[in-house]
Amino acid sequence: MDVYKLLPKTNCKKCGHTCLAFATKLILREVKLEDCPLLFEDKYAENLAKLRELLEPVMDTYETGLKLDESKCTGCGNCVVVCPANVSVDPSVARGMGANSEEVVFRVEDGVAKIVNLERCRRFPPDRINCRMCEQYCYSKAIEIY
Ligand code: SF4
Ligand code: SF4
Ligand code: SF4
């Protein structure tokens, strides 16, 4: 509702949806603010700025919602091992071996997790599978999914 309140609320459907449906789709990352042309009119400038602020975590991580804060990472390797996408590309990962392929989502390098290929994440469009395994097993909260 916080997002909806900041939309023009005309239900003009220029975005292909009602304003309420558009608000929901924004949060689900199925549309972008740019899909509502009215928002870019001068009279909605303040609303647009507030929406950008409100939706920053969502828009920053538009494809997957996944954010890795390397400063919190302890290099435990849990994300590398539990990620089903990682294991499907490089089965040796499940046995605790290092991920050598460039097709894995995560790899630990110099004691810190790095994102190698985010497109392999099961949350990536068009599949957008609601996987949260890496977040669940990252006990230092270095991974957050919005
Ligand atoms: S284009 Fe904007 S104002 Fe029009 S229905 Fe969609 S969200 Fe609402
Ligand atoms: S959300 Fe799932 S598929 Fe994506 S990186 Fe995390 S564990 Fe892997
Ligand atoms: S699970 Fe978390 S702390 Fe462990 S390597 Fe991955 S990001 Fe770093």
Question: Average pLDDT value?
Answer: 90
What would CATH call the architecture of the largest domain? 2-Layer Sandwich
CATH class of the largest domain: Alpha Beta
- Count of DSSP-assigned helices: 7
Distance between the termini: 17 Å
What small-molecule ligands were found? Answer: iron/sulfur cluster
Q: Quick one: biggest sheet?
A: 2 strands, antiparallel
* Helix percentage: 25-40%
| H and E order | HHHHEHHEEHE
Tell how many strands the DSSP assignment holds.
4
**How much strand?**
5-15%
CATH topology of the largest domain: Alpha-Beta Plaits
SS-based class: alpha+beta
Structure description:
The chain is α+β, with helices and mostly antiparallel strands and 146 residues long. It has 2 domains: 2-60, 3-methyladenine DNA Glycosylase II, Chain A, domain 3, CATH 1.10.15; 66-145, Alpha-Beta Plaits (2-Layer Sandwich). Helices cover 30% and strands 10% of the residues. The chain is built from 7 helices and 4 strands. The chain has helices at 2-6, 19-27, 45-54, 56-60, 78-82, 84-89, 133-136, and strands at residues 66-68, 106-109, 112-115, 143-145. It is elongated and about 55 Å long.
